[in-house]
Amino acid sequence: MQKKPTDELDALLKDIKPDQLEQYYRENRPYLADDKKEFYYYMREILDKRSFKLKDIYSFAGVSESYGGQVMRMEKHTADRDLILRFCIAGHFNWDETNRALKLYGFSELYSKDPRDACIIVAINNRIFDLGELDKRLSGYGLKTITPEEQ
Question: 125-149, pLDDT tens digit by residue?
């Protein structure tokens, strides 16, 4: 399916009256953002650009392909912000890309006043995408690691 450019949709909305909004939705539904899928599409766009395979991202993040896929497609919602961070680190996301992914998933962005987030930001900005190395840095400052502790 062909995508409709945002500026084209913007132009349509300029002249629409409130009672015409239903028709706009009906005619343009395929081009409108789907909150449930927006995270998935964003992640895929970045990962495809970098030629990363989803199965490798899941493996690197320490989850099964099945579970990782369900979380990525938002079929199962995780409350684990660190999992989304691990997906981003596995995909070599920069700080802005990571913040956008967190926000699209419903989590708070990395916050420079939070000591743990600050350590993660510095790692990302310095292209430290090895979770073991990041965990070492976090624990060196007495902060919770990004990978789950083994039971």
Answer: 999 999 999 999 999 999 999 998 7
Q: Is the pLDDT of residue 150 over 70?
A: no
In a domain, 22, yes or no: no
pLDDT tens profile 14-62 = 888 888 888 888 888 777 766 667 888 889 989 999 999 999 999 999 9
CA–CA gap between residue 141 and residue 84 (Å, rounded): 22
148 within domain boundaries: no
- Please give the backbone phi and psi of residue 76, each rounded to the nearest 5 degrees, phi first: -120, 125
Residue 3 structure tokens: 């995508």
Q: Which domain holds residue 71?
A: 35-140
What long-range pairs does 8-17 form, CB within 8 A, spacing at least 24?
A: none
Structure tokens at 146: 């990004």
Is the whole-model pTM more than 0.85?
no
What is the C-alpha to C-alpha distance for residues 27 and 63, in angstroms, rounded to an integer?
Answer: 39
Domain count across the chain: 1
Question: Other CB atoms closer than 10 Å to residue 98's CB: what's the count?
Answer: 22
Residues 6 or more apart whose CB falls under 8 angstroms from that of 136 comprise none
Is residue 106 left, alpha or beta, with left meaning phi > 0 and alpha meaning psi from -120 to 50? left
